[in-house]
Amino acid sequence: MLNDSLGFYKEAQDFGSVVRLLCMIGDVQNALKIALETNDPQACFHLARHYENNLNIREAIVYYSKSQRLTHAIRLAKENGFDQEVMTMSLQASKQNMVQSANYFETKGKHDKAVQLYSRGGNRKKAMDLAIKHNLTDMIENISTGVQEGDDPEVLKKSVHFLMQNRQFDKAVEIMISLGNVDQALQIAESEQVNLKEEMALKLCPPAT
User: For 1-81, CATH number?
Assistant: First the structure.
């Protein structure tokens, strides 16, 4: 009966079902061979589930990743303390997964990883607050130099403060302009002889109409 089913699934190129059945009968070697040859997401997923159920955790993580089920892979990596794998896969995952992993690293006291994932996951405010709290200067600089018009105003203001302290006046002036602090931006641009991009210069000193 199982052989008939295997034959049917192979003919239909339903590799996920083939691998699922092979794992059920304990023929993991052939299941692995099919997953590797086809790189079929469903085949990789069923192989990953088999590995997880049999506590072969590292292989399970690999094949959950290959099956594009990063949420499962990240979950397993967290449960088993494989932090490098958590970081690597989270950077490839959805923003929601990034923020969840950021919280995981924050709880573990790995603040540099947490800041990077909060920032990449879209929560720049949390990233900035955490970086400032733990004096992660390089991280503060990365966030500050990467902010854009439309970002959280509080993050923009903290970025201006950091950039001014570190004499990165050109970027500070750009952020001031985006915040609408044109007078302050003009004052800094003049006092520190900032070479502004044409777009920024036009915002500071629009042409007369």
Answer: 1.25.40
Q: Give the pair of three-digit tokens for residue 57.
A: 């955790």
Task: Tell me how far apart the alpha carbons of residues 154 and 135 are, in angstroms, rounded to a whole number.
Answer: 18
Rounded to whole angstroms, the Cα distance separating 26 from 32 reads 11
* Domain segments of the chain as ranges: 1-81
For the entire predicted model, the pTM comes to 0.77
Q: What is the chain's pLDDT, residue by residue, as a tens digit (209 residues)?
A: 556 566 666 767 888 989 999 999 999 999 999 999 999 999 999 999 999 999 999 999 999 999 999 999 999 999 999 999 999 999 999 999 999 999 999 999 999 999 999 999 999 899 989 998 998 888 888 887 777 767 788 887 888 888 888 888 888 888 888 778 888 888 888 888 888 777 767 776 666 55
DSSP the chain: -HHHHHHHHHHTT-HHHHHHHHHHTT-HHHHHHHHHHH--HHHHHHHHHHHHHTT-HHHHHHHHHHTT-HHHHHHHHHHTT-HHHHHHHHTTS-HHHHHHHHHHHHHTT-HHHHHHHHHHTT-HHHHHHHHHHTT-HHHHHHHHHH--TTS-HHHHHHHHHHHHHTT-HHHHHHHHHHHT-HHHHHHHHHHTT----HHHHHHHSPPP-
The encoded tokens of residue 26 equal 């304990």
Structure tokens that stand for 122 in this block: 């879209």
Question: What token pair was written down for 44?
Answer: 């990789």
